[in-house]
Structures are given as C-alpha cells and as structure tokens.
Specification:
alpha+beta; Aminopeptidase; 12 strands; 35% helix
Length: 342
C-alpha cells in the first residue's frame, strides 16, 4: 500500500533510509529549499515491517509557467530510495493517478531502476564529475593535468591568496555571483537569502566553508562554496571576477578545496553538473582529475499536455538581464521569478 504525506510529518514518525546518501536527499538541504522558496515537499512511500522500504520525495508545481511534479526541486540530481522496479512503477503510477494533467520530471544520476519505467523518456543529459580524494595529496596532485598544475602555480606566482571567509565575505561572493549570472550567462541569480540560509544550515555548523580568492591588492576576485554531506565534499557554487581570470584564481581555489576535503578526512569531492555545451567547465573538471558520467533528465507528459509557458520565462530572463537593466531591477526580477522555477 502506498502512503502519501507531507515530508516533515513523516520525518517525525518514521526514519527515512539513505537520507544522507548524498547532499540533495539530506534533511539539511531539503530544509534549505523549503525555507528559501516556501515549497511543500511531499513523500510517497511503501511501508514494510513498520518501516519505510521505498520512497520518493517530490513537490507539486502549479503556477503560470507550468504544471509538473518535480523529483526533486532545486537539486542538481535526486536519486530516490526505491528498492525494486515494482515499487518504482507503483509509486510512478500513484503520481499519475493523483495528478493526471501534470508532467513528471526526474533528474537521475545513479538510480538504474527508474530508467526501466517504459513511460519515461530521456529529455536531455548533463555531465557530472566526482573526484576521489582518498589518496595522499601528492598522488592527487600527480593525477591532475599539467595545465591544471601550471595554473595553480601561476595563481600563486601572481600573488593570489585563498582564505576561508567569515560571514562578511558572503556579500562579496554574492555580488560576484550575481554579476556573473547576469552579465555572462544572462540568467537570474538565486536570491541572497538562499545563500544566507545555506550558511546558517551548513557553515555555521561546521559542515561547509566559503573559500575566497584575493589578489595581491587584497581585492576579492573569486569564491567557492563547499558543503559537506556524509563522506563527500560538494563543490556547490563557484564565482570569479571576469577581469581577474588571467590570475587563475579558480584553479587555486579548487586545489585548496581538495586540501579542505583531506583536512576533514572526506573520501570524495562532488563537482556537480555541467551543461553539455559548457566545454570550458567540463575541461576544467577533467583536468582536475575527476571522473565523468551523465545526469539524465527523465520525463513523462500526459497526452495533450499544455500547461507550460516557457516563452514567458525566456522573455522575463532576457529582459531583466539586459546590460542596461539596473542591478536592483534584476534582483527584483530574481526574487519574483525564482520561486516559480522549481
């Protein structure tokens, strides 16, 4: 029998197996997205022997952009804890029965079972990288590409210094992040409160760090935000000043991130997803010695599905990130639109 409930209600009564198997299924991360975007996360689960055996976590998205069931919102990927194909089919069909007019979206990494559901189709793929950091630092250094090592040395020669930032550095990081998203990628940046909540949920608890890069004059020129879950360090956010890229701060920040992982006796460094068209970013991660695989976007849409207005989103994004648009207006647009992007 399949049961459906608000996630928080179930957490108080039943333990959720494999809740900390990765960052995006962890209670801390789910708390971040709930607090930031005020979404209600739900759980469908199959109970056996008075315990949860299989489950999926999802949100119901119904707004002027589209109607969809998302597993799971604001996550790079989300592999559900489902023990076999029969359970997955039962949970999937339960979603279809509850929401017959909605499409279903799944961002899948390591769950081979869900890919066997015949109604799901592959919509697109992204690249995913993970770095094994169990070896001693000298061995990890040897496994990096010559160009990566050269860039680290160049940054040090140029006087770039990487420091662990206090909370005051978060504003510097966000300002660079905002400008990079707006001016280079023509995308909305997440609202500042998102990073503030991440800081309180992770960094204040000793489960993460913001590493900032400073040039020889002490100017903040880049930052990497790292989060810890289980035995893995997550390279979650990176930003850098476009006029300081010749100083190669990103390579040095990433190398210091590897050192941070070793300091905390972690086993892996999750480098997250990259769009298949982001050739420079993919090359950077390859040169750092990481192993590459795919994140698969799976989807289902009912016959005659029509609740999608991506043209509105595209128009708003392009308009509010125009070079002539004042930054405060772009930030306002971000606060308005981001809660609808689940």
């Amino acid at each position: 029998m399949i049961k459906t409930a608000n996630l928080r209600d179930v957490l108080q009564a039943l333990p959720r197996p494999a809740a900390d198997k990765n960052l995006f299924s962890s209670p801390d991360w789910l708390t971040v997205i709930e607090k930031t975007y005020h979404i209600r996360l739900r759980i469908k689960y199959i109970e056996r022997h008075d315990a949860i055996a299989s489950y999926i976590i999802y949100s119901v998205v119904k707004n002027f952009l589209e109607w969809k069931i998302c597993i799971c919102s604001y996550c790079d990927y989300f592999d559900c804890q489902v023990v076999n194909l029969e359970d997955w089919k039962a949970l999937f069909h339960s979603l279809r029965e509850d929401f017959p007019e909605y499409r279903i979206a799944i961002r899948n990494l390591r769950d081979e079972i869900v890919r066997q559901i015949p109604e799901l189709t592959i919509l697109s793929k992204e690249r995913f990288h993970i770095l094994d950091v169990r070896e001693p630092l000298p061995e990890i250094w040897k496994r990096t590409h010559d160009s990566f090592r050269s860039a680290v040395k160049q940054a040090q020669k140029n006087g770039v210094v990487v420091k662990r930032c206090a909370k005051e550095g978060l504003r510097d990081f966000y300002q660079l992040h905002f400008k990079l998203r707006k001016n280079k990628y023509r995308l909305f940046a997440q609202p500042y409160c998102f990073f503030d909540i991440i800081w309180r949920q992770y960094v204040d608890k000793g489960q993460g760090a913001l590493l900032g890069a400073y040039d020889a004059d002490g100017r903040f020129i880049g930052g990497n935000m790292y989060l810890i879950c289980g035995d893995t360090l997550y390279y979650k956010f990176n930003t850098s000043s476009r006029d300081a890229l010749q100083l190669r701060p990103n390579n040095l920040m990433f190398w210091e991130g590897i050192k941070f992982a070793k300091e905390r006796n972690l086993r892996y460094l999750d480098l997250g997803s990259s769009g298949c068209e982001q050739h420079g970013l993919i090359m950077f991660k390859n040169h750092a010695g990481a192993m590459m695989s795919d994140i698969t976007h799976l989807g289902y849409a009912p016959q005659g599905y029509r609740f999608s207005q991506k043209k509105i989103l595209k128009w708003m994004t392009r308009t509010f990130t125009e070079p002539w648009m004042p930054d405060f207006m772009t930030r306002l647009g971000s606060r308005i639109i981001y809660p609808f992007l689940a």
